[in-house]
C-alpha cells in the first residue's frame, strides 16, 4: 500500500511540475509593460523585474463575476481572467533569457454577514454648511480627531496641521488603530495631506468598511456600520439600488445627465468628500457629444485641489441628473474646461451637495448602493442661495 501511495505522490508531483512548465508565456525586450483592466479601463505602468517571484498585480475589487486584465509588452500581449479571490500566474520572458514569474491577483472578498453576534454600530454624524460630513474618532486610543468620511478616497489621510498639533505619539506602519463608535479598525495606511473637508483633521475612505454595510441617515444624523444589510431596506420600494463598479481604490455608480435633447449615461465617482453637486469633465462630455455649450454659465471661480493646487472651474446649469428612478433638475454643476484625470482616467464626480439629499446604504458585501430621498431632497442648492 505504501508503495502505491508513494507512486501516486510522485505522479502528483510530476503533474504539478508539468503544470508549472505550461504557464502562459509572453515575450518582452523592454522592462516596461502596461496592465489594463478591461471592465473599467484602469491602466497601470509595470516594471518587469525578474528578481521578484512572483511579482503580483492586484486588481481592483471585483463587483460581480470575473475580471480580465490585458498585459502589453513592447512586442507581445496576453489576457488573463480571474474570479474573486483567485490568482493566476504567467511568465514574461525578458530578452529571451530572464523568466519573470508574474501573478494577477484578486484579493479574497471580505464579508461580515456571518459574524456573531451581528453588529449595528451607530455613530453621530454631523454635516456643516460646506457639506462636509464628519464623525468623531480616536487614533491609537489617545488622539481625538474630527474626520470626514470620504468615499472618494481610501485609507486615512491627516492634515499637516493635525499631525503636528493633535498627534502626540509616533505612528508606526501596520500597527495603528482607528476607533470610530464602538468599533476598531486596523490595516490602513496613513497619508499626509495639505487640505481636508472644512473643519476636519483629515479623512478616511470607504475601504475601512470593506465587507460591511454603511448607513448614512441624514434625517436622524447618524452613521451606522452594519454587519449585514437590514432586511427592511430591500423590502422598502423607496430605496433604489445602484450597482457599484470599482476603479483601483474608489467606486462609481451609473448616473444619467440630460441637456436639451441629449441624454448621457455613464459611471460617476461616488464622492462624499467632494462638497459640491457634480464635477463634469467638459472635454470628456464633448467627446461623448454632450452639449456643454448649451449649459448656462452661472459663475466662474478658482477651486483648490486636495494638494492645494488651483483649478479654474465654471459653474453652469445642468438641466437634469438622475440616479436610478430619482431625478434632480437645474443643478448648478461644476464644469471643467480642461480634464482633470484621476489615476490617469477622465471622470465625472458626484458630490455631497447631491448625495446628502438621500439616506444611503453602502453595501460593500454585494456591491450595491441603496438611496432614498430624505428631508434635504428639495432644498435649494448652495450655489443658488
What does this structure look like?
With 385 residues, this protein is mostly beta strands. The chain has 3 domains: 2-105, no CATH class; 120-212, Cathepsin D, subunit A, domain 1; 231-384, Cathepsin D, subunit A, domain 1 (Beta Barrel). The protein is 11% helix and 46% strand. It is built from 5 helices and 29 strands. The chain has helices at residues 2-21, 160-165, 231-235, 282-287, 352-355, and strands at residues 25-28, 32-37, 43-47, 55-58, 66-72, 77-83, 87-94, 98-105, 120-124, 126-127, 133-139, 143-149, 156-159, 178-180, 183-185, 190-193, 202-204, 213-217, 222-226, 240-247, 250-259, 262-270, 278-281, 297-304, 310-323, 326-336, 348-350, 358-363, 368-373. Strand 7 (87-94) and strand 8 (98-105) form a beta hairpin. It is globular, with a radius of gyration of 24 Å.
CATH topology title of the largest domain: Cathepsin D, subunit A, domain 1
Mean pLDDT over the residues? 91
CATH superfamily of the largest domain: Acid Proteases
Strand content: over 45%
Number of helices: 5
Note the main sheet.
Answer: 8 strands, mixed
What general form does the structure show?
Answer: globular
Helix/strand-derived category reads mainly beta
What are its keywords?
385 residues, mainly beta, Cathepsin D, subunit A, domain 1, 6-stranded mixed barrel, 5 helices, globular
Strand and helix map with partners:
Blueprint: H1 2-21, E1 25-28, E2 32-37, E3 43-47, E4 55-58, E5 66-72, E6 77-83, E7 87-94, E8 98-105, E9 120-124, E10 126-127, E11 133-139, E12 143-149, E13 156-159, H2 160-165, E14 178-180, E15 183-185, E16 190-193, E17 202-204, E18 213-217, E19 222-226, H3 231-235, E20 240-247, E21 250-259, E22 262-270, E23 278-281, H4 282-287, E24 297-304, E25 310-323, E26 326-336, E27 348-350, H5 352-355, E28 358-363, E29 368-373
Parallel strand pairs: 1-7, 4-8, 12-17, 13-16, 22-27, 23-26
Antiparallel strand pairs: 2-3, 2-5, 5-6, 7-8, 9-19, 10-11, 11-12, 11-14, 13-17, 14-15, 18-19, 18-28, 20-21, 20-29, 21-22, 21-25, 23-27, 24-25, 25-26, 28-29
Amino acid at each position: 500500500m505504501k508503495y502505491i501511495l508513494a507512486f501516486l505522490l510522485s505522479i502528483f508531483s510530476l503533474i504539478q511540475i508539468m503544470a508549472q512548465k505550461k504557464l502562459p508565456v509572453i515575450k518582452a525586450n523592454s522592462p516596461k509593460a502596461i496592465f489594463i483592466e478591461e471592465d473599467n479601463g484602469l491602466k497601470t505602468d509595470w516594471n518587469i523585474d525578474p528578481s521578484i517571484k512572483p511579482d503580483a498585480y492586484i486588481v481592483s475589487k471585483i463587483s460581480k463575476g470575473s475580471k480580465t486584465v490585458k498585459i502589453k509588452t513592447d512586442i507581445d500581449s496576453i489576457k488573463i481572467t480571474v474570479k474573486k479571490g483567485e490568482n493566476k500566474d504567467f511568465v514574461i520572458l525578458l530578452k529571451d533569457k530572464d523568466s519573470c514569474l508574474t501573478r494577477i491577483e484578486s484579493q479574497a472578498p471580505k464579508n461580515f454577514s456571518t459574524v456573531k453576534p451581528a453588529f449595528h454600530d451607530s455613530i453621530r454624524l454631523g454635516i456643516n454648511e460646506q457639506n462636509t460630513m464628519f464623525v468623531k474618532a480616536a487614533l491609537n486610543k489617545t488622539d481625538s480627531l474630527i474626520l470626514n468620511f470620504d468615499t472618494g478616497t481610501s485609507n486615512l489621510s491627516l492634515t499637516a496641521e493635525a499631525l503636528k498639533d493633535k498627534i502626540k505619539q509616533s505612528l508606526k506602519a501596520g500597527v495603528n488603530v482607528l476607533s470610530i463608535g464602538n468599533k476598531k479598525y486596523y490595516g490602513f495606511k496613513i497619508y499626509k495631506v495639505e487640505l481636508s473637508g472644512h473643519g476636519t483633521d483629515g479623512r478616511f475612505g470607504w475601504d475601512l468598511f470593506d465587507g460591511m454595510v454603511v448607513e448614512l441617515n441624514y434625517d436622524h444624523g447618524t452613521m451606522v456600520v452594519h454587519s449585514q444589510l437590514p432586511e427592511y431596506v430591500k423590502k422598502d420600494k423607496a430605496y433604489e439600488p445602484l450597482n457599484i463598479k470599482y476603479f483601483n481604490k474608489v467606486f462609481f455608480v451609473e448616473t444619467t445627465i440630460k441637456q436639451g435633447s441629449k441624454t448621457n449615461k455613464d459611471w460617476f465617482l461616488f464622492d462624499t468628500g467632494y462638497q459640491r453637486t457634480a464635477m463634469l469633465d467638459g472635454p470628456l462630455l464633448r467627446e461623448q457629444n454632450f452639449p456643454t455649450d448649451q449649459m448656462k454659465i452661472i459663475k466662474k471661480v478658482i477651486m483648490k485641489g486636495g494638494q492645494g493646487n488651483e483649478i479654474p472651474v465654471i459653474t453652469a446649469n445642468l438641466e437634469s441628473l438622475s440616479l436610478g428612478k430619482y431625478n434632480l433638475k437645474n443643478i448648478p454643476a461644476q464644469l471643467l474646461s480642461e480634464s482633470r484625470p484621476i489615476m490617469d482616467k477622465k471622470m465625472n464626480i458626484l458630490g455631497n451637495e447631491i448625495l446628502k439629499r438621500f439616506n444611503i446604504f453602502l453595501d460593500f458585501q454585494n456591491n450595491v448602493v441603496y438611496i432614498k430621498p430624505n428631508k434635504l431632497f428639495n432644498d435649494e442648492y448652495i450655489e443658488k442661495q
